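EI: anyone free to look at a 149-residue chain?
SC: sure, send it
EI:
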Amino acid sequence: MAEGFCQGLWLGRLQSCRVSAMRILKTMKPGAKGTQTLAEEFEGRLVCVRYRYDAAAKRRYTTAEIIVAEGDWMPRQPGPAPEEAAWIRVRWDEQDLRARVKAGGGRWDAERRLWSLPAGTVRELGLESRVVPQDRPEGLAATRPPGSV
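SC: here you go
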């Protein structure tokens, strides 16, 4: 590594690095002309090769982005933003749950007969299974006591 480029690691962080002062003028995918040597060296772990230029130091650097670890990952399910309102169903006989929803900032909507609560709070309280889809904000049958009309 060129002297003065990166001074070393300290607790996993670079102490001094000029990367932010450099411009990237070219990024190449593995297999492109000029990447064969690095592709062979990193044996299938090469993601891309970049040519960086530091005008102040009048230096050119070739950098390689490589895969260093691999593991299973589950993408987050798309959902409303944490501050966006979500409609949830709470039955009339679930007094403890109603109290938790109220304490979390929930508001009762008598017309829809559903509780409105920030989506982030719904996740914190573990109430995702009670969310009414936005295209069906009617909850009348599920929130009325048995035998009522």
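EI: Residues 95-103 form the longest helix (9 residues).
SC: 👍
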